[in-house]
Amino acid sequence: MSAFDVIVIGAGPAGYVAAIRAAQLGKNVAIVEKEYLGGVCLNVGCVPSKSLLKNAEVAYTLRNQGKDFGFSFDNLKLDYGAAVKRSRQVSKRLTKGVDFLLRKNNIALFTGSAVFTSPKTLQVRGKEGNEDLQADHIIIATGASPFIIPGIKVDGKQVVTYKEAILQESLPKSVLIVGAGAIGMEFATIWNSYGVKVTVVEMLDRIMPNEDQEISSELNKAINKQGITTLVKSKVTKVETLKTKVNVLVETPDGEEKISADQVLLATSFVPNSQELDLEKTGVNLDRHGFVEIDKGMATNVPGIWAIGDVTGKLMLAHVGMTMGVVCAENIAGVSFTEINYQNMPRATYCHPQVASFGLTEQQAKDAGHEIAIGKFNFQANGKALGLNDYAGWVKLVVDKKYGEILGAHLIGPEVTELLPELTLAQQMELTPTEIGHNVHAHPTLSEVLHEAAKAVTGQAIHA
Questions:
Q1: Number of Cβ atoms within 10 Å of the Cβ of 415
Q2: Which of 15, 54, 146, 243 is the most buried (most CB within 10 A)?
Q3: How far apart are CA 323 and CA 374, in angstroms?
Q4: Residues recognised as catalytic
Q5: Three-class SS of residue 163?
Q6: Which three-class secondary structure state does DSSP give residue 417?
Q7: For residue 182, which of 54, 41, 349, 343 has the smallest C-alpha distance?
Q8: Rounded Cα–Cα distance for residues 344 and 424 (Å)
Q9: pLDDT of 91-128, one tens digit each?
Q10: Shortest CA distance to 207 belongs to which of 225, 185, 227?
Q11: How many Cα atoms within 13 Å fall on the side-chain side of residue 50?
Q12: What global pTM score does this model have?
């Protein structure tokens, strides 16, 4: 039996970061991965999807904005297969980078599925046989998988999850997307940009239901203008796969509607990958959904067993998993760590227009009893946005009126996912909008909208 100080189960963003940080802190580390280094994010998730979204941005510009830029085509041809091929190259490059980092930090890699045989021991079941491992500390970082609506069968062709959708090299002519969260909105953007007819069905009362109400309304208006149909307060009740199409029954506020499409994408929610670990042999507590329960230091109720990333259900974002991985490794090593405020973690959706946010929404701030001030500024008045011909949206700051504390920020518009860090850093360092307003922002840049929004909190925005 091979012995280590730390074993990490899962080499996704949370797992490989935890392994590297533990190795940096002098621990003898092993990592177990059953499928691919980098996990969902690097292989079939956030990284390749951003590559596809860049291709989609170019396709949208050529198809819909050619006249604005002085382009004209007699016969425009868009090769979606080439876009997918480029996304795979991007993914492969980064997964090779993870392999290099593991070797650089002398982390032992075991390929196979890990199951607990006791709180301190694992068995790795691989293609070439089984191997037993032992460690004082075992970190569960096995991630999560798509929730499949009962009664609906995923066949990988007509009914798909994000995994099949991101790997397919040909486009359907029409798609129905179930779920209007980040995954649904990003695939809606990709497919619509290539001319696919897209319908999005959301059970709750608005798209992007976890975002600020105004964000949902602004995004809905923008994507409807692009030709994407949205049905809210609507529920898919039946999916019937036929030879050449899929018939979907949708219960809407106006009654039942049958929608035919070439393909259905299930993009609702996720379930934890905790069922195949034999956790009953450890006594680790799970919540009623199967997520691993942890404390602020990533420890479970069983000494020496830890959990990070999506398997905990805290906030299913790669950068949150990475942060949890660092906290976990530092806690194991006895290093002082910073407690994670999940509410203030940055959130980003790369649809068009992009959405980025952190902290409390306007309604949440009011419900929490804050007397608030709002600072808001539109991209329509920003010279850089106008130059890019991409000026839908705005920046909105939610601020405690008495103390000037930034309670939350909600952005929709061009490249707002890149603008968000200035605001999260300001909040973390307890800067107020007044101090952001005193900071000189280069002109012309999109970041000037942050400057104006900060000034708008006290009614001092110059270009409003």
A1: 18
A2: 15
A3: 30
A4: 443
A5: helix
A6: helix
A7: 349
A8: 8
A9: 999 999 999 999 999 999 999 999 999 999 999 999 98
A10: 185
A11: 13
A12: 0.96
